[in-house]
Amino acid sequence: MSDRGARRFSQAIAEGDGISVIVEVVDAAAAQSAEAQGAEAVGLRSALSGIHEATELPILWLAAGSPSQAADAGADAFVVHARDDHVADLHRTALDLGLDCVIRVANEDELEDALDHIDPEIFLLAAEENGDQWEQTFDLLSSVPAGKLAIADVHAPSREHVVELERAGIDAVIVGARDVAELVGGAPPQV
């Protein structure tokens, strides 16, 4: 398991100026590149050997499975879908394991249910596929209470899209492996 004190996911996306970029990576080299270019965290859809040697960034577990599988893979945060029948149990288990628990919501009903039943600190706004995902993401964000963290899972292909999310109040955005420096508004570091 990771050293959760040094790699706290919620702190990484809440601290600093502006929006945080979370890069979904498929190998250790992509994680190193993301860190070098200014990412605040990496997202994994499966366990990756060597990930902790490659980066000091916190790890968001995006894969299916249990909180214990995420913890065993060295994750610092676990995503659970609000529509899961056992969302409250998964949320509690993740927190008990020292993971930040991110609740994925796709619509207003899921968001309201999550607030009523578990009152999570972090939401992943993943708009439904049928419709304007940008508009749905902003609509969902308007219902996230102040003081909660909001992560957008929406296609953000340019710096302008990231700035739009930031202006709206999104704390972080998940992107695929790519030139992260362009999205965070900085030049690639000299190595």
Write up what this structure looks like:
The protein contains nine helices and eight strands. By secondary structure, the protein is of the alpha/beta class. The chain has a single domain, classed as TIM Barrel. An eight-stranded parallel β-barrel has the order 1-2-3-4-5-6-7-8, surrounded by five helices.
Features:
alpha/beta; disordered N terminus; disordered C terminus; 8-stranded parallel barrel; 191 residues; globular
List strands and helices in order, with pairings.
Elements: H1 9-14, E1 20-24, H2 28-36, E2 41-44, H3 51-54, E3 59-61, H4 67-72, E4 77-81, H5 87-96, E5 100-105, H6 108-117, E6 122-125, H7 133-141, E7 149-152, H8 159-168, E8 172-176, H9 180-184
Parallel strand pairs: 1-2, 1-8, 2-3, 3-4, 4-5, 5-6, 6-7, 7-8
Number of domains: 1
In CATH terms, the superfamily is Aldolase class I
Mean pLDDT: 88
Unreliable spans: 1-6, 187-191
Alpha-carbon distance between the two ends = 30 Å
Major sheet: 8 strands, parallel, barrel
Q: Helical content, roughly?
A: 25-40%
> Based on CA inertia axes, which overall geometry fits?
globular
CATH topology: TIM Barrel
Strand content range: 15-25%
Number of DSSP helical runs = 9
CATH architectural designation:
Alpha-Beta Barrel
Q: Give the helices and strands as they follow along the chain.
A: HEHEHEHEHEHEHEHEH
**CATH C-level label:** Alpha Beta
**SS-based structural class?**
alpha/beta
Number of strands: 8
> Radius of gyration in whole Å, from Cα?
16 Å
